[in-house]
Amino acid sequence: MDRRTLHLDFADFWPNFEKTDNWLWHVLSQRFDLVISDRADLLVYSCYGDQHRAHSGVKVFLSHENRGWGFSQCDWAITSDYSRSSRHLRVPLWATMVPSARGRRESGNRLLTDRGFATIVVSNGNSQTRERMHDLLNSHAEVASGGRHRNNVGGPVADKHAFLGLYKFSIAFENSSYPGYTTEKLLHALQADTVPIYWGDPLVGCDFNTKRFVNCHDFADEAAVLQRIIELDHDDDQYLAMLAQPWFRDNVLPECADLTSILDFFDLVANDTSTPVARRRLRPDTVLRTALDRWAIRRRFLSRVT
Question: What are the structural domain ranges in the chain?
Answer without folding.
Answer: 4-91+259-302, 102-251
